[in-house]
Structures are given as C-alpha cells and as structure tokens.
Specification:
The complex is a heterodimer of chains A (243) and B (216). With 243 residues, chain A is α/β, with parallel strands linked by helices. Chain A has nine helices and ten strands. In chain A, helix 3 packs across helix 4. The radius of gyration of chain A is 18 Å and the shape is globular. Chain B is mainly alpha-helical. Chain B has a single domain, classed as MetI-like (MetI-like fold, Orthogonal Bundle), CATH 1.10.3720.10. The relative contact order of chain B is 0.15. The chains are: A alpha/beta (243), B mainly alpha (216). The structure holds adenosine-5'-triphosphate and magnesium ion.
Chain lengths: 243, 216
C-alpha cells in the first residue's frame, strides 16, 4: 500500500468544483512534483492531504490513517505529514530555534534539553544552526523558508508537503531552498511539491503530475514527460514555462 | 468667599481625584477580566455563547453609558436591592469597559494572519495550543496600545458616575462651585486634573504604537 493514497478526491468551494476526482498514489521515498496552471487545484489538493481543507468525496490515506475519518486522530495524522508554505508562516514572536522546538515541546511533550538538541540538529540540517537565536524578521526570505522546513522536519514527518515554497523568494534566494529540498530527497524523504521550478521538477522529481481544471491531466516520469508530453495542454504549459 | 483660596479648591479637587482613580482602576481591571472571559466565549465553538457575547457587546456599545448607570441604579432599587452609588458605578463601568475591551481584543486576535493558525495546525497543535502559543502572544502585543488608549475613555467615563451621586472629581467640582460661585476657576482646575490623568496615557499609547510599528 502506498504511503499516501489519494483516491477519487472531490472538493468544491460553493458551486466551484475545484477537485473533480483526483487519484494519486505516493510511495515512500517518492518525490512528486505537481505542476499546472494557476487555479487548477494544486494547493487545494495539498491542503486536503493534511486536513487543512476537508474533501467532499473520495478518500485520502496517509500511512494507514484516513484523513478526516470519523475515527482518525487528526493530531496523529498531522505528526506524520509536515507542510511548508509559500509565505513561510514562521511564528514571528519566536526565535528560529523557538519555531523549530515549539511543536516537539508542546505536542511531543519533549523536555527542554532534548527539544533544544533536536531543534539544533534540524537547523543544522538546513544550514542555519548559527541563526538559532535570530527572529524571523532578522532573516532573509530564503533563511526563513529553511527554518520553516526545519520546523516541519522536527516532527519527524513521514511525508512533507511543499506548496510553492520558492515562489515568494527573490530569485537569488531560490537555490539555497531548493538545495535543502534536494538533500531531503536524497535522504529518501517522501515529498509532494507544488512547484513552478520546472528544471527542479525534472531533475529531482521521481514523478511528475500535471493538474488541469481539477484533474490529474497527465502523469509519469518527469524526464520522459518533459521530453514528450502526450496532451496538448501539457505541451502548451511546458512550452510557456521553459520560454 | 475670600477664604476659598486657590489652594483650598485645588486640594479638595485633588482629594476627590482619588475616587476617580479608584473607580477607573476598578472598572479597568474588572472590566479587563470580564472582557477576557467574553473574548474566550466569543471565540469558543458554542454558537449560543458567541451570540450571547455579541448581544452583550451590542447592548453596552449601542446604548449611552449614562442610561446603563441609571438602569443599574434604579433597576436594582426596583428589585428592592439597596445598591450604593460606588457599587452601581463600579458595576456599570465594568460592564461597559468589558464590552469595549473584548471587541478591541477580538480585533487583535483576528488581525493575526490566517497562515499562523495553519502553521500551528500543520505541526499538530490543537486549537487551544495554537491560541496559547501562537495567536495570543502575537495578539497581546498588538493589543497593548489600543488597550492603554481605551483607559483614557474609562477615566472620562467615570465622570458620569457623578450623576448617580458618587462623589468623584466631576461631582466634587460641581459641589465646590456651588459653594464658591467661581465656575470658571473650579472647572478649569477640574479639567486640568483630568488632562493630567489622561494625557500621559494617550502619549504612552501613541509611543507604544509607534514602537510596535517599528518592530513589526
Ligand atoms: N478557501 C477558498 N474559498 C473559495 N474558493 C477557493 C478557496 N481556495 C481556493 N479556492 C478556489 O479554488 C480554485 C483552485 O485554487 P488552488 O489554490 O487550489 O489553485 P492552485 O492550483 O494552487 O493555483 P495557484 O497556482 O495560483 O496557487 C481557485 O479557483 C480558487 O479561487
Ligand atoms: Mg496554489
């Protein structure tokens, strides 16, 4: 059974059906890159996976837990699924280390010393151990996003969701964040990324998913798909993106 | 009338100022406590609680404080409850203050971006934990300047307690005027004392706000 299995998921906002039956199995260690036009439902799909949005129909299972299921402990589910946001969403009143250790302390009831150790380890992983005492406002966008990744990793998630995590960054800061993601991919972390970084999707992804009008329009191995898109829509999208 | 020197007038007014300060403090502290409870009720999952708080706020913000004082004072008498002017004024100002503070604070909580709640959810914090560790610490910072600013309204609001017979600064001013017939002098001093109480608080609120904006 896949680590994350999304089966025929539907979701509407009012009369606007945003997901029209999306199915997607994600195996452990997969790096799934989701691409597609604005409004095609990429964010909504990602947010359904950790229950930030509730889906209307279909099912989403993460490591045997049904998302939104009547018997599901959503707290347990969210410990398994980390999320990194486009706008970082760091806690501005806490230091970098404070951001990373909050959930381990509160949710995992970890002692001060152990949480600190874990937090420093996670900050080191994203190359920011020396910034432990900086507040988010004192960090660059790229550094903030790396702290946000460390914060998600501190829960030891089984899968990490990333929603356009470099889109709010100045171009020169994009690479430092992508390098961290690439390193995670190399460590066999399961990743589901919504991204506009086509080269990154092609080079690091193990699977490419093209969403179009609320459906998975085309999917497959990234290199093959980029080289020979089967549908006119993907052809057009890739053409526009690599221009 | 020559024996009513400037000093006698001023010292009597200053003595009465104690009661203005006491009433303001009581209204502010107990109003703040009630306001906090209302805030939690307002943000709870219970629809009935939320509706109750919004009615409460509508009532105390939508009617004159003077009328609230009268209702408490004479309403209590109607039920045969003997209520002193001090009690009536404290209670009415507490209700009134709590309604305004809870609205101010709700605005502060709501001004914390939605992404903060979502980030809290994404690391498995419960609603209460998100509130306690993520939202309230940020809302509190935003809330300090308008809260200090509102304390000025409370001080000025206490003047209305004079009408139900509570002797604070305004009432003392009226009484001294009746004895001295020097309204301009008496009310000038009274006004200056109010100003001396309120102005530093206004300044403080402004400087806190400036500091908050600079830090934000
Ligand atoms: N909370 C919401 N309420 C109402 N409509 C929403 C909400 N969130 C998303 N939508 C709508 O759902 C559709 C899909 O949005 P979604 O954010 O999933 O797209 P996306 O593929 O992530 O686009 P983008 O590339 O711009 O981020 C859009 O039409 C959007 O307006
Ligand atoms: Mg999106």
């Amino acid at each position: 059974m896949p680590l994350v299995s999304i089966v025929d998921v539907r979701k509407s906002f009012g009369a606007n059906e945003v997901l029209k039956g999306v199915s997607l199995p994600v195996e452990k260690g997969d790096v799934v890159a989701i691409i597609g036009r604005s409004g095609s439902g990429k964010s909504t799909l990602l947010r359904c996976v950790n229950g930030l949005e509730t889906h209307d129909a279909g099912s989403i299972m993460v490591d045997g837990l049904e998302v939104g299921g009547a018997k599901t402990d959503m707290r347990a589910l969210r410990r398994h699924v980390g999320m990194v946001f486009q706008q970082f969403n760091l806690f501005p009143h806490l230091t970098a280390l404070g951001n990373v250790t909050l959930a381990p302390r509160v949710v995992e009831k970890m002692g001060e010393g152990r949480a600190r150790e874990l937090g420093l380890e996670m900050l080191a992983k994203v190359g920011l151990a020396e910034k432990r005492d900086a507040y988010p406002s004192q960090l660059s966008g790229g550094q903030q996003q790396r702290v946000a990744i460390a914060r998600a990793l501190a829960m030891r998630p089984k899968a990490l969701l990333c929603d356009e995590i470099t889109s709010a960054l100045d171009p020169e800061l994009v690479n430092e964040v992508l390098r961290v993601v690439e390193k995670l991919a190399g460590e066999d972390m399961t990743l589901i990324l919504v991204t506009h970084e086509m080269r990154f999707a092609r080079d690091v992804g193990t699977k490419l998913v093209f969403m179009h009008q609320g459906r998975v329009h085309e999917q497959g191995a990234p290199k093959a798909l980029f080289a020979a898109p089967q549908t006119a829509e993907l052809q057009q999208f890739i053409g526009a993106s690599f221009k | 009338m020559a024996d009513f020197s400037l000093w006698v007038i001023t010292s009597n007014l200053l003595l009465a100022t104690r009661w203005t300060i006491a009433l303001s403090l009581v209204a502010f502290v107990s109003g703040g406590a009630v306001g906090l409870l209302l805030l939690l009720a307002r943000m709870s999952a219970s629809g009935a609680l939320r509706r109750f708080v919004s009615l409460y706020v509508e009532f105390f913000q939508g009617t004159p404080l003077l009328m609230q004082l009268f209702m408490l004072c004479f309403g209590a008498a109607l039920f045969g409850v003997e209520i002193s002017p001090w009690m009536a004024a404290s209670l009415a100002l507490t209700f009134w203050t709590s309604a305004f503070l809870t609205e101010i604070w709700r605005g502060c909580v709501e001004s914390v971006p939605k992404g903060q709640w979502e980030a809290g959810s994404s690391v498995a914090l419960t609603y209460v934990e998100q509130m306690r560790y993520v939202i309230l610490p940020q809302a509190l910072r935003i809330a300090v300047p308008p809260t200090v600013g509102f304390s000025v309204q409370v001080i000025k609001g206490t003047a209305l307690a004079s009408i139900i017979g509570f002797v604070e600064l305004s009432r003392a001013g009226a009484m001294i005027n009746n004895a001295t017939f020097r309204p301009f002098l008496v009310y000038s001093i009274t006004g200056l004392i109010y100003f001396a109480l309120c102005y530093p608080l206004s300044l403080l609120a402004k400087s806190l706000e400036r500091r908050l904006n600079a830090a934000g």
